[in-house]
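Page 37, top half.
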Amino acid sequence: MKNAVPQAASLLLEKLLLLVHVRPLPAGSGGEPPPAAAPDYYDTSCFKRGDLLEVPRTLFIHFGIYLGENRVAHLMPDILPVLTGDRRQIEQVVTNKRLILGVITRTASIRVDTVEDFAYGGSILVNHMDRLFQDKVLGSEEAARRAEKLVGATAYSLLWNNCEHFVTYCRYGAPVSFQTDKFCETLKMIIRDQRSVLASVLVGLASIVCLGLAPSTTLPTIFIPFFLWMAG
């Protein structure tokens, strides 16, 4: 990924991103997903094999590749494939407990679920990212075949290998994550702002030492860092 933050900071960034990747579950659910939506809740007739599906959440977007026949391939953090080979258990909808443990242990699976289980009750956008890649969009069948070949257990990283990396590789040929890029740029901006505050404090203190206590030196030393911090 271009302009990536140093590798030493990746663990901290992943912890910061953890909460925004957890799907909210209703109160009293005990960590289990709500009942699946009715099979006709989504009109799958408008989806084509190889389409890139997006489900906007409150703080993030979940991505998948439509395979046809009401099936979606998507990458999900999941601890269960490490603990058991029972396909019946693994194929059940991933709960928050499984997801969180998968993020912590950096384990995941590219799984195939129904549109209802994938969307989790959210609205679905179709091929919304095509405008960002223009002539780099691969053929629909090629995208679907790439997704099918990758189905199974995989390593997971909120920064370097998440559901967005998976779908962009399948449909556009290059694994990228705009969500991760945006988060990293925001974090860099915050760090730069904090450095500006620190620099202004040091300059102000130096002016007080050199010129003595006076309104012309003391007030800027107090108010400039304060406003820079508020703006950050």
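Page 37, bottom half:
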Amino acid sequence: QKKRRAATARRQHLKSAMLQLAVTEIEKEAAAKEVEKQNYLAEHCPPLSLPGSMQELQELCKKLHAKIESVDEERYDTEVKLQKTNKELEDLSQKLFDLRGKFKRPPLRRVRMSADAMLRALLGSKHKVCMDLRANLKQVKKEDTEKEKDLRDVGDWRKNIEEKSGMEGRKKMFEAGE
């Protein structure tokens, strides 16, 4: 048990050390991302210098609006290109499935539906036939077999026992055997 305690204590110590290392690594990554973000912003977005006069401000706003419009046009163009390529990919994948002869089966949901409801859903108003499956079955008559007749003739077992009990019953059995 002493070894067990030492092993668990060592395991707990290693676990806490690993957690401390993970926390420091996460903090370092966050700091690196922040520095990278600042560098990117400094490179791509020069500091804004606001002019003093109203006319210069209006010109600056017009320039910013023109940049925004150009960026929106580029974004729209890239979205359209992306949609076209996605559509082409879907068409090509469908052609590939057609050529292979393997079709992608859609996931099916279980639906509890009677045969009549299914035919109504498939055929619509044309469906007039009732799908009562028991109505079309043949009527089969049972033939009376000799065993069944014997069983019916025997009837209640108590009467049978009473008839065979005593000397009269034995006499009947003896006569029936001959």
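Margin note: The mean pLDDT is 79.
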